[in-house]
Amino acid sequence: MFSIYCVSIKNFKEEDKLVYLLRYISKEKADKLMKFRKIDDRKRGLISEILARYFICDMLKVKNSEIILSTNKYGKPFVKNYSQIEYNISHSNEFIVCAIGNQPVGIDIEQISNIDLILSKKVFSVQEYEAFRKIGNSKKREYFYLLWTLKESFIKAKGFGLYMPLNSFNINIVNENNIYCLYEDNKYYFKEYKLDPCYKLSVCSNKKEFPKRIEIFDFEEFYNLVDCNLVQ
């Protein structure tokens, strides 16, 4: 089983709090984040790392300094010294989301925005594109982002990242409670979560066991939680 956590950084205004929170990540990671030109990119990168660290430590009952976070050659994150833990992170604009548990999991969030829907022909499989064509024009953009996040969550669960073409596999959407993908004789399951009307959020795993809800924090709430409880 796994859990899903979300932090909104909408009210993350003070740069001094960003500097303060850097103490909870490695110097190497902090130096990398501070090279980002945009302050919002620094915030998203920092909260992504700390969100994962906080709840991994909570799950394992260990100190922050006792876990080593790394990525594989495709960019999939993992806990180097606790291989029983699986986790995945995504962020879009104000939201950072993280799924953590003991089974393969991928998560993706995207803000729904104006996009050239011609792209659908390049990133969807033949079956997916045919289903997309049948969607009414008023719903097409929302459906595009649903399918996009489903597919992204799958390649993130598999750990292939951008090395796996999005049109190389097919997502079957029977209804909102029955979404799956058959890949190399294995079945993967999906769930869409309604976080915000302006976003699509999808999760993929190899088991049909999903949390009923997401634990959501605003920035101040999460900041205080970390400051009081994350032991170095």
Structure notes:
- The chain has a five-stranded antiparallel β-sheet with strand order 6-10-9-8-7, covered by helices on one side. Strands 4-5-1-11 form a four-stranded mixed β-sheet. A two-stranded antiparallel sheet has the order 2-3.
- It has seven helices and eleven strands.
- The protein folds into two domains: 127 residues, 4'-phosphopantetheinyl transferase domain (Ribosomal Protein L22, Chain A, Alpha-Beta Complex); 85 residues, Alpha-Beta Complex (Ribosomal Protein L22, Chain A), CATH 3.90.470.20.
- Helix content is 35%, strand content 27%.
- Strand 8 and strand 9 form a beta hairpin.
- The longest helix is centred in the first third of the chain and has 22 residues.
- One of its GO terms (molecular function) is holo-[acyl-carrier-protein] synthase activity.
- Keywords: Magnesium, Metal-binding, Transferase.
- Its cofactor is Mg(2+).
Task: Give the biggest beta sheet.
Answer: 5 strands, antiparallel
The assigned CATH architecture of the largest domain is Alpha-Beta Complex
How many domains?
2
Radius of gyration: 18 Å
What order do the strands of the largest sheet run in, or round the barrel if closed? 6-10-9-8-7
GO biological process, one term: lysine biosynthetic process via aminoadipic acid
GO molecular function: holo-[acyl-carrier-protein] synthase activity; magnesium ion binding
Domain 4'-phosphopantetheinyl transferase: 104-188
Pfam families: AASDHPPT_N, ACPS
SSE map:
Elements: E1 2-8, H1 15-21, H2 27-33, H3 39-60, E2 69-71, E3 77-79, E4 86-92, E5 95-101, E6 105-111, H4 120-123, H5 126-133, H6 137-158, E7 172-175, E8 178-183, E9 186-193, E10 199-205, E11 215-218, H7 219-229
